[in-house]
């Protein structure tokens, strides 16, 4: 049994919507509830939302970092559509999920799939019914992220990936100062680099790097294919978004960055 959680991040200035699937072998909700309690908030009532203002809430800031730590225990894939396709985002999400299942050899497993509230389908429930019968999938629509708390991890993943894509499009140019890191302490880094470093191992990607590949090319062997495994882009996206998505998420370096 596997668990998928899907939430979206909408960016009109970039003319795209990015929906993130987070995948876990176990239900993430108990884990997220534990993190909520640890920062002094109440599960089922309080929650992480990327749209919340964090500046004046130490609890929410701590919760965001606690959820970000969960990235090391999950896999992430994404669906990118144009903003004009919001009304059929659910259809594209299932197309993206199908790519994830097949390319990562997960299609033979049964899965519970949770979609956040407001994810729309052009054909009502027909796409959901067809997908559920084709794959062993139990699809839960319009889920409340306060109670299906794995969706809060998907929210953070969608927001994080969206900022990376906006930066690649030239629409975000923010630098941050790293503190507490023995390598990067007090160094100014692009926000996108810092976000990428925190989830690069979580993206669905090619299964392994062989020793033969490392011996042949010890640098490029660590530049692995992620686009074939984690990325679905609607054909209706503008060319700039398609190119930026491929540039940002098509390949992923998993070697040492120090």
Walkthrough of the structure:
It contains 9 helices and 10 strands. With 258 residues, it is an alpha/beta fold. β4 (111-116), α4 and β5 (137-143) form a beta-alpha-beta unit.
> Could you estimate the helical fraction of the residues in percent?
25-40%
Secondary structural class: alpha/beta
Oligomer: single chain
> What is the average per-residue confidence, as pLDDT, rounded to a whole number?
89
For the terminal residues, how far apart are their CA atoms?
37 Å
> Largest sheet at a glance?
6 strands, mixed
Helical segment count: 9
Strand order of the largest sheet: 5-4-1-2-3-9
Shape: globular
Helix/strand order, N-terminal first: EEHHEHEHEHEEHHEHEHE
Summed up, what is this model?
The chain has 258 residues and is α/β, with parallel strands linked by helices. 37% of the residues lie in helices and 21% in strands. The strands form three sheets. The chain has a six-stranded mixed β-sheet, sandwiched between helices. A two-stranded antiparallel sheet has the order 6-7. Strands 8-10 form a two-stranded antiparallel sheet.
């Amino acid at each position: 049994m596997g668990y998928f959680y899907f939430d979206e991040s909408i960016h009109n200035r970039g003319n795209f919507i990015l929906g993130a699937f987070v995948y876990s072998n176990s239900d993430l909700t108990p884990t997220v509830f534990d993190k909520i309690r640890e920062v002094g908030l109440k599960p089922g009532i309080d929650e992480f939302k990327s749209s919340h203002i964090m500046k004046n809430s130490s609890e929410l800031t701590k919760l965001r970092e606690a959820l970000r730590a969960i990235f090391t225990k999950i896999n992430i894939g994404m669906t990118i559509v144009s903003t004009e396709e919001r009304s059929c985002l659910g259809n594209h999400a299932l197309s993206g999920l199908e790519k994830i299942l097949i390319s990562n050899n997960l299609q033979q497993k049964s899965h519970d799939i949770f979609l956040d509230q407001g994810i729309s389908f052009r054909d009502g429930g027909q796409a959901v019914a067809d997908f559920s019968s084709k794959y062993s999938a139990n699809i839960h629509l319009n889920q409340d992220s306060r109670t299906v708390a794995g969706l809060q991890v998907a929210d953070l993943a969608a927001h994080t990936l969206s900022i990376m894509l906006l930066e690649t499009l030239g629409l975000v140019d923010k630098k941050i100062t790293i503190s507490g890191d023995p390598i990067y302490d007090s160094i100014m880094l692009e926000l996108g680099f810092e976000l990428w470093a925190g989830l690069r191992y979580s993206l669905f990607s090619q299964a392994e790097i062989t020793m033969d590949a490392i011996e042949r090319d010890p640098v490029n062997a660590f530049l692995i294919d992620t686009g074939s495994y984690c990325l679905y882009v609607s054909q209706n996206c503008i060319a700039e978004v398609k190119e930026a998505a491929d540039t940002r998420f098509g390949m992923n370096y998993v070697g040492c960055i120090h």
